[in-house]
């Protein structure tokens, strides 16, 4: 079995032989995910944006056509 290990893993203990700490290379650690729970802030943000864009759409739809738009409509029918 020792012969098979020497064939598969020719360099014994590669990580220890690399000696990262002596060279000043930082040793990594497992990633830590830290998600904050801001659901109420997200609700106010997205519903506020939705309300604002709905009001802007309503203002555009109810607006009377201006002079340039009336001229364009008249020129299509000539």
From TrEMBL:
Transmembrane segments: 43-61
Classification via PROSITE patterns: SURF1 (PS50895)
Membrane topology (UniProt): Multi-pass membrane protein
Main localisation: mitochondrion
GO cellular component terms, semicolon-separated: mitochondrial inner membrane
Protein's organism: Penicillium bovifimosum
Protein name: SURF1-like protein
Top-level taxonomy: Eukaryota, Fungi, Dikarya, Ascomycota, Pezizomycotina
Keyword set includes Membrane: yes
Keywords associated with the record: Membrane, Mitochondrion, Mitochondrion inner membrane, Transmembrane, Transmembrane helix
Superkingdom, taxonomy of origin: Eukaryota
Function: Probably involved in the biogenesis of the COX complex.
Family: Belongs to the SURF1 family.
One Pfam family here: SURF1
Keyword Cytoplasm among record annotations: no
Compartment list: Mitochondrion inner membrane
């Amino acid at each position: 079995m020792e012969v098979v290990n020497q064939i598969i893993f020719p360099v014994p203990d590669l990580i220890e032989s690399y000696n990262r700490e002596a060279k000043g290379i930082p040793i990594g650690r497992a990633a830590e995910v830290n998600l904050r729970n801001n659901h109420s802030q997200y609700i106010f943000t997205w519903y506020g944006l939705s309300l604002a864009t709905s009001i802007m759409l309503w203002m555009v739809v109810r607006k009377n056509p201006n002079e340039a738009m009336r001229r364009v409509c008249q020129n299509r029918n000539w």
